[in-house]
Amino acid sequence: MRALFLAVLLACFGLQTHADTVAQIANAHAADLAKPSRQTIGPVIADLAASGDPMAAKLLEAWGNKALGQRKSDKAFFVLAPDAAGYALTDLTGADAGTAPKAEITELKPNAGVRGLIASALVQFTLSDPDPQRRAQALDSIAQDPKAESLAPLRASVQTETDPQLKAQKQRLERLLILRFDPDPAARVAAIASFGADLGLDLRGALNPLLATTLVASAGDASQLNIARTLHPGHDLAAADAYDLLVTAGAAPARLTHEAQKKALAAHIVDGKVGTVPVADLTDQSARDRAYTDLEAAGTVPTAATDDEVAAAIAAHQFYEVYAEPNRSVTTAAQAALAKISLAVGAMQVADLTLDGLSLAAIYFLAAIGLAITFGVMGVINMAHGEFITMGAYTGYVVQQIVPGYTASLVVAFPLAFALTFAAGVALERLVIRHLYKRPLETLLATFGISIALQQLFKNIFGTQARPLTSPPWLDGALTFNDVLSISYIRIAIFALALMFLAFFLYLMKRTRLGLEVRAVTQNPAMAASMGINPDRINMLTFGLGSGIAGIAGVAIGLFAKVTSELGTDYIVQSFMTVVVGGVGNIWGALAGATMIGGLQKAIEWLNPSNTLAAQTYMILFIILFIQFRPRGIIALKGRAAGD
Amino acid sequence: MKLSRRMLLATGVAAFAAPLLTRPVFASEDTIKIGVLHSLSGTMAISETTLKDTMLMLIDAQNAKGGVLGKKLEAVVVDPASDWPLFAEKARELLTVDKVAVMFGCWTSVSRKSVLPVIEELNGLLFYPVQYEGEESSKNVFYTGAAPNQQAIPATDYYLNELGIQKFALLGTDYVYPRTTNNILEAYLISKGIAKEDIFVNYTPFGHSDWSKIVSDVVALGADGKKVGVLSTINGDANIGFYKELAAAGVKADTLPVCAFSVGEEELSGLDTSNLVGHLAAWNYFESADVPENKAWIDQWHAYTKNDKRTTNDPMEAHYIGFNMWVNAVTAAGTVDVDAVSDAMIGQKFPNLTGTVAEMLPNHHLTKPVLIGEIRADGQFDIISQTEPVPGDAWTDYLPESAVLESDWKDLKCGMYNKETKTCVQLTSNY
Amino acid sequence: MTHPFDQIPARSSGSKHSGGAGSGPRILATRRLSRLPSTFWVLAVLVILSVAVTLLSPAFGLGEMSTSFVKTLGKTLCLCLAALAMDIVWGYTGILSLGHMAFFALGGYMIGQWLMYARTEEIVVQALSSAPIPATATEVAQGVATQIFGVVGGSDMPWIWGFAYSLPLQLALVVAVPGLLALVFGWLAFRSRVTGVYLSILTQAMTLALSLYLFQNDSGLRGNNGLSGLQNVPGLGAVTQDVLSIWFFWASALALALAYLGLTWIISGKFGSVLRAIRDDEARVRFLGYPVEVYKLFVFTLTAVICALAGALYYPQAGIINPAELAPIASIYLAVWVAIGGRGRLYGAVIGAAFVSLLSSWFTGGRAPAVPLGFYTIDWVDWWQVLLGLSFVAVTLLAPKGIGGLFDRALGLHTPNRKGAPLGPAEGALQEQEAVE
């Protein structure tokens, strides 16, 4: 409808002002140009586009790119280009108009809706533009706002398209437009069939409107309607809703609400009574009904619809869901196509959810792997683990301030974060934890103290604002399989990092001397010491290692989430649960725990999409119950290594 | 031995009793005290410390001009530590121990609702500088932030009229401001002919960081061919993860615009915005407003914080207006007495920082222009729409229960007046 | 007049003589209490404090002390009560529960429901009374629901508010809800022999789950907003906060005194010995034939109920309760208070809770003077948390007996120099020593 309106406007304005130059049109509509609204600017844009002036395209483009300006002194329009002195100006005849300082120019900033109109107007200029990028922009613009009149120019441009990729895109867009706007139903059905089970969002976006339905109540013949389904009041349509439909359609009188009843009663109080009922008795509904009936009988209030009348009115009508699209063959074809698509979409959604779950599991695993060492292997409760993660993230931030280039800074940040948190871990072990090996519960308290001190220290140093930690450009964007299934590169990178750590951990524990010594010391420190291993040194190194890995995890987590002093706190309880659920003392356990928690959280989120908070609650409840039944976690150590 | 025990006892009791006996005595009588009730630690410190600095700067500047009523102003800064009961405790302390003339503070409705019973009981005065969900008008509070009709509703109008959005995703953090705002918006959208199925609502916890599922859900909304727009009431640092995910998913403002009510310059400073260009925010102030007052304000702020990069934001402007109005009202009333100042506040006018004039209305809300900005690559906003000042509405017209209510502290002397029954429902507020 | 301190050993020895005379359980009880001389001092301090506060309060005295400080003290007493419970469960039984503040908050929620409902009902009835037609009960209930839930964008009263109209029922829930939760949770946990740090993490998970649940706006308890305006007690609208604060202070002091006496009595008997034995070597107690799980479950539930009662007294003084109150960190703080005060001695818990929470209140109040160092000024608002954190470390490392240990040193008590294995997880327990004294 709107499109049609625009087209008509375009046609008549085009005829009327064809001879005007862009400058004349712009000056005639100066106020509109300066403060455009999508509602009113259409004719002006159409005028400009139809003017035939070679400057038209240039002006529209500049305007759309927020590069059109108005000189404050004389309100004249110029195309702007940034310049040392401020702006280099080009006037609307295309002539160079010198330069002006920024203060003398008001930049025009049309809103996105207006820019959309400008882009559609530019389509005719750019659909066959030599620059492939502009052609692509034109296609985007058509795709965003599909219109019947775009079909003809698009068809024309398909023939001349040289770029194979753009050509395919144009052909697809052409079929999408045919499907919606072609006058011949057979062509539309053919276009629908040509897509098959395509997963594109644009296809579903074109098909679904064809199947839009409205609820209709009809007392007579309904054979001309393209009926989607017949509804039966009381079964698939609530009787109250059915009656409301009749009321809105004007086919039945409205029912009396309690509010309206109360108002009517209040309006008819006579000598402390309403009808025959004293006002003081009106504290329950049945008394009010009696009073109202009295009034009805006296004829002072209109009669309200009774339940019997409502039932009769509903029975006298049929209720249908009716397609807005009148052609039945088109709706049938669209329905069949969508049924096929929705099956494929369902499968892809499951795959997408799996990817999301895996990615969340990787994040939890990354946050927990350091803990799997300090808590899992050494049995030390380090509540400051989260702050080590934060420390890593802040290291990344500081490095990015100093080292130019996001990639280079990351290369520096990872080892530096490891070194810093390793040192912090060693210091913590030497100064505090070493003295508390016999008192695990007190380690919890002491490290908790460290945790709140560090957190406040971060606040004092970095402030309370979130700090930017930006991923390098090659990690921007997402790996997109289709419009349903995609995953961002940064998550893939985190996943890869988690796998690397897993491999590193396994190698370290199973294949190196240090790993052997660590295992020896955790299983039996006295025996290990008598074999010439220095348990003090091993404990220190192990703890440092666990902390160092937390630092690296911090950089990675900071890349996809926020960097604030509370970053670590968000992960600490989750991390402990990951390790406990998975089974202490076993890296596979931590992996299993992370997978279970991540997967479960996503699954619950999927079941209850409107509330993510509930998902977390149910997940924790599940974990509590799970631990009841497997107190040693998914992968429990057996035998002597299990300790106590 | 016994002696030492007795002495220990005596000193112990004395030490315990000492802080009870001595009430801390502060400045002399010739200053006017101003309470600053903003969290400096805990989760809300991220937003509130800036406002504390703003208040200190405003008070310094006023003192440099000679103070108020010939007296210097003295700031009493307390730290409610993002702990809601502590807000009530500190407010009581400010009012009864420090005897402040006025308080500037709170952020989030729950902190205000915690303070409300205290200030209504003790007849204090609070200036609340943050946008909120409305549905309240206390005799003792001046709301210098936006009510829903000064932020959410105009932004929705912009979506409907300028961008032609047909399907709405209302994303919010799970607390009262998003809940109430979204309820109002839902009612408003339905009144504008948007079907209930075309409104998608999702709530996430504070500090949520895993946004992939929600972002893909929102993208999938476009499957029925309607143009989708997001109205975000996501609060605080959860936004960072949200915007990073939006950028990663390649969500462009042209196809799926996101308009935020809680994201300003300050929040964007924690982000690389080059991938977010064109997404929107609705406020009553943007740092990029090209007005001399604003330039002076930004310079003053940079000089005060000794940091050229510190951004300014909407709640700061709210404190700026609120503080200056209070100063003028005190000057007009000739006293700091709460009732006199409250009366003098109504009708106060003060130029805001975006080129128009703010006026304090009888319902204790301000008139404010609504600005809609598009995010730029440098973390600032392009102002693409600015309305004339809109009077703030305490009780929204779009929810049936509150449509009949009105607030007027000048003539009706009631914050919750039922227009139909012509009665004052209650004088105190709901908490 | 004999000094009271001297009477204790005298009474204690006296009862040894009269105990055989079989003059009943009263003497036995006195004897058991008198084994802990600290009881007398704690009660004495409480009495002195109550008298002092009353005399200084604005309501009944000179007005030298502000109402907000009376409230702070009253709240501190409630926290001390919770710390007492924590000390029993951790210091005496060795279960480091990181979930007891959840019970505390639940108690607050339960009493808060009544406070809010009844107060709102008063307002609604009053507002509706001016209408020409008297209100139906449904209309009143609907009005209350709109008032309470309108704030958080709802209008229906959830079923969990079913008893909120009645104070006795809701008071029963104060005990029943946290008690049942503790019973079920404890039964599950102790049954499957979850102990040590695992139990700590599990209790922490329980708190987190509960707080996340309550954070939901749809939880029925107003989500993040929680219940507010609790300081206004329904039916007592005419009583000023100055007076109310003193009433609540007295109630808190009484509750603390009663709990202190009760708990002292419990832990000084055989039951207490079994608890300490469980703490020191659970397996051995089990092998001796004691039903360890039953003991632990009883203690866990009892302390949960005490915490709930403390919470029910605390939140009407605080004025607002919301889910942040049961964040895991709150329970950790509770453990820290007990640790700083000194575990395994009841007065230690009281001292720790009072000391740390009052100090915290002082530092965050902006009252502490800043320390200029020339190049940098230490602002306590910024550095208090750092100081607090480091002091945990210092206490655990250097003074595992907490502040209570200082008393020992001052009074000349020493840890018995036993040979063999260390004293177990809580070295702070010195009951034997006290008994001998």
Structure in words:
The complex is a heterotrimer of chains A (644), B (431) and C (437). Chain A has helices spanning 2-16, 22-28, 30-34, 38-50, 55-64, 112-126, 132-144, 151-160, 164-181, 185-195, 201-210, 239-248, 258-267, 285-298, 307-315, 328-377, 385-402, 406-431, 440-462, 489-511, 513-523, 525-530, 535-560, 569-582, 587-607, 612-629; strands spanning 68-71, 77-83, 86-90, 96-100, 105-107, 213-218, 227-231, 273-274, 277-278, 318-323, 478-480, 486-488. Chain A is an alpha+beta fold and 644 residues long. Chain A has 4 domains: 2-126, no CATH class; 138-210, no CATH class; 214-323, no CATH class; 346-642, ABC transporter involved in vitamin B12 uptake, BtuC. Chain A has a 5-stranded antiparallel β-sheet with strand order 4-3-2-1-5. With 431 residues, chain B is α/β, with parallel strands linked by helices. Chain B has a domain at 152-260: 3-Layer(aba) Sandwich (Rossmann fold). Helices cover 38% and strands 19% of the residues of chain B. Chain B contains 13 helices and 19 strands. In chain B, the strands form 5 sheets. Chain B has a 7-stranded mixed β-sheet with strand order 7-6-8-9-10-14-15, sandwiched between helices. A 5-stranded parallel β-sheet of chain B has the order 2-1-3-4-5, with helices on both faces. In chain B, helix 2 packs parallel to helix 11 (314-333), helix 3 packs parallel to helix 4 and helix 11 packs across helix 12. The longest helix of chain B has 20 residues, at 2-21. The radius of gyration of chain B is 23 Å and the shape is globular. In chain B, 62% of the residues are buried. Chain C has one domain. Helices cover 68% and strands 2% of the residues of chain C. Chain C is built from 17 helices and 4 strands. In chain C, a hairpin with a 4-residue loop joins strand 3 and strand 4 (377-378). The longest helix of chain C is centred in the first third of the chain and has 29 residues, at 100-128. The relative contact order of chain C is 0.15. The model of chain C is unreliable at 1-23 and 419-437 (pLDDT under 50). At the B-C interface, helix 1, strand 2, helix 3, helix 4 and helix 6 of B face helix 3, helix 4, helix 5, helix 6 and strand 2 of C.
